[in-house]
Amino acid sequence: MKLFFLGTCSGTEPMPGRHHVSWVLQLQEKLYWFDAGECCSHTAHVLGLDLQNIRAVFISHCHLDHVGGLANLLWTIRKLDSLHPRQDPGPVDVYLPSLPTWEGTMTTLRETEGSFAINFPLHAHHAQPGLVFADGGITVEARENQHLPPGKSLSYRIRAENHTIVFSGDVRAVEELDPWLDDCDLLLMETGHHKVETICRYVSQKTGTRRLAFIHHGREILRDPEAALAVARQFLHDRISITNDGDCLEL
Q: What do you get for the CA distance between the two ends of the chain, in Å?
């Protein structure tokens, strides 16, 4: 299984070489999409990912730096279908903690050419805490966090091929993820609202968390990634990495 990082920036002003947060898990031929920041579909296509193989999209919360590319992602799938028609396209399921955002996305898409007539099943679901998705050897669970009012912001735990990945989304404190950190192969943790040292000091005490990768970078990392990595390695040594747009990580 491979992870592709399409956007690694938090919701700052535009940053050179970085777009808002989005990453993809490739499991066999299927793609599982997590958050959909600006330009995510363009980056994925340029990296050689087949967007017609998207099975599901999971949104942590509906701030624009996490959903700003969602409409364009769905539009791009439709565009690729018009160029390379599929005989039996599978469904695309989209999970969001706020369905009004989905309604706005669809309103935008229906104003595009062809009123966004598509030949694949597209379903939106209200993502809530608990088991969200189970299909094709992958399960996705959601946990509410305190970034936004209750019901509006989620973290996700993904299990596939005997690996466990925890995606923080945006959280008020890393401690909110504690129930998931005792058995975690990879923690994808945002730094848009946290200091590198605070996160690394905490995770270093969690022996069940085997690897930490930073995503949704805040200004400490955006200003000087190498200095931030040096701080992180004081606590986690080779168990830490800082993701960049276009990176691929294999588990």
A: 6
Strand 240-242 versus strand 248-250 pairing type = unpaired
Please give the Cα distance from 243 to 221 (Å, whole number).
10
pTM metric for this prediction: 0.97
Q: How far is the CA of 186 from the CAs of 69, 157, 179, 239, in angstroms?
A: 25, 10, 14, 9
Q: Please tell me whether residue 211 adopts helix, strand or coil conformation.
A: coil
Chain segment 216-251, per-residue pLDDT in tens: 999 999 999 999 999 999 999 999 999 999 999 999
The CA distance from 193 to 191, in Å, is 5
| Average confidence (pLDDT) over 18-22 | 98
- Whether residue 136 is predicted with pLDDT greater than 90 in this model: the reply is no
CA 23 centroid distance within chain: 4
Classify the C-alpha dihedral 139-145-148-151 as positive or negative: positive
Residue in the structure block whose two tokens are 């200003």: 223
pLDDT at res. 200? 98
pLDDT at 13 over 90: yes
In the chain, the domains with their CATH numbers are 2-250 (3.60.15.10)
Distances (CA, A) of 114 to 28, 82, 119, 128: 32, 11, 12, 33
